[in-house]
UniProtKB/TrEMBL annotation:
This protein's name: Beta-eliminating lyase-related protein
Any one GO MF annotation of this record: lyase activity
High-level lineage: Bacteria, Bacillati, Actinomycetota, Actinomycetes, Kitasatosporales
Keywords: Lyase, Pyridoxal phosphate
Pfam families, sorted: Beta_elim_lyase
Organism name: Streptomyces stramineus
Keyword Lyase: yes
Length: 399
């Protein structure tokens, strides 16, 4: 079985589908589990997803209203809702975050007169968009740092060449869903202003950054000139994203949205699901973030109790409701152990495992959502031990 890690659909590490019956087996094991710590996104059937949308829709939008046509109706209401939540003048709905970000950067390049974007080499644009910013939009990137962390203000000030836009991913997913402190973030933004650059937030997961920063969404968004947010990574929507910022920028972005093929005739299912997510999931995110800290501590305790020779929970104290776990075992063995545990006991612990670039180490992304809130530290420790007990003797660095 070969498999490639791609951008995630719900924050838990989506991948291209495994060949054969592996994916079906994993989904069956997950769906049959009574207790789920960190699940797989998009594990529902078409019928279940339709039933959920039908159940959520009446509270999210007037079902007697007509469907949207090229962005009016429910799509327009969603755009207004996002602008109000973020405290921006306007917002535009996009079918994908990749399109939203490409359009934002293209608009800023025209306004600043610079095709150069300062961004992290682990950013979504570099890792998960097939170089679209360069191939499609003709932009060029410079990297403030290669370290797996957000850039510092000093690194922004010391960039050897001018740039028109600074893109900051909040949180930085591929570095471990990490965030700067509020003071560090404001200093980085100030450093970009000193360089006469605009600031764009890749805020696909901005919704869950509020507890870490201790600031509301409008205050966070106000630091940037434009912000992109996702409706499905944390909010449980079907798809879609929004680009928020000044009204003039959003109006221009809608022109480019049409040119990029994003002027879809009807998008009401995605828009209704997004409104439901804003109503239901957004208020719950702080509780997920708080419980992620409990789960992370318990995982570390479980690995120590099981005698794992080396492990890493990163960050040790999660910044959001997502974090990484690294173990010294082959990903395939960890996958099999987790699936067999679910099949035998109805307990699902981890999402997908991947062999890392470091030989002998596997990594997974843990997402703490509603299904994890009932897990006590003792339950997490016991479940970790049950997974590791299923590894073959002599497996990896500590079996």
């Amino acid at each position: 079985m070969t498999e490639e890690k791609t951008d995630d659909g719900g924050g838990a590490g989506e991948t291209t589908a495994p060949r054969g019956g592996e994916r079906a087996r994993r989904l069956a094991a997950l769906r049959g589990s009574e207790r789920v710590l960190s699940g797989i996104p998009h594990g529902l059937t078409v019928g279940e997803r339709l039933a959920r949308l039908a159940a959520d829709a009446p509270a999210a939008y007037d079902l007697d209203a007509g469907v949207d046509t090229y962005g009016d109706g429910v799509v327009g209401e969603l755009e207004q809702r996002v602008a109000e939540l973020l405290g921006t003048e306007a917002a535009a709905f996009f079918p994908t975050g990749t399109m939203a970000q490409q359009v934002a950067l293209r608009c800023w390049a025209g306004r600043t007169g610079s095709q150069v974007v300062a961004l992290h080499p682990l950013s979504h644009l570099e890792k998960h968009e097939r170089g679209a910013y360069a191939v499609v939009s003709g932009l060029r990137a410079v990297h403030p740092t290669d370290e797996p962390r957000p850039p510092t203000a000093e690194e922004i000030r010391e960039l050897a060449e001018p740039f028109g836009t600074l893109l900051l991913e909040l949180p930085q997913r591929d570095a471990g869903f990490v965030l700067p402190t509020w003071e560090e973030l404001t200093e980085v933004v100030e450093a970009a202003r000193e360089r006469d650059a605009v600031v764009h937030f890749d805020g696909a997961r901005l919704w869950e950054c509020v507890p870490h920063f201790g600031r509301g969404l409008p205050e966070i968004a106000a630091l940037a000139d434009s912000v992109y947010v996702s409706f499905y990574k944390s909010l449980g929507g079907l798809s879609g994203a929004a680009l928020a910022g000044p009204a003039a920028l959003v109006a221009e972005a809608k022109v480019w949205r049409h040119r990029y093929g994003g002027e879809v005739v009807q998008q009401w299912p995605a828009a209704v699901a997004a409104l439901a997510g804003l109503d239901q999931e957004l208020p719950r995110l702080p509780s997920y973030v708080a419980h992620a800290k409990v789960v992370a501590r318990a995982l570390a305790e479980g690995f120590r109790a099981a005698g794992v020779p080396w492990f890493r929970v990163h960050p040790g104290v999660p910044h959001t409701h997502q974090f990484q776990v690294w173990l010294p075992y082959p990903a395939a063995e960890l996958e099999e152990a987790g699936v067999s545990l679910a099949e035998e006991s109805g307990i699902w612990v981890f999402s997908r495992w991947f062999d890392s670039e470091v030989p002998g180490l596997a990594v997974t992304e843990v997402t703490v959502g509603s299904s994890a809130l009932g897990w006590t530290p003792e339950a997490v420790v016991a479940a970790v031990g049950a997974v590791l007990d299923r590894l073959p003797a002599g497996c990896g660095g500590g079996g």
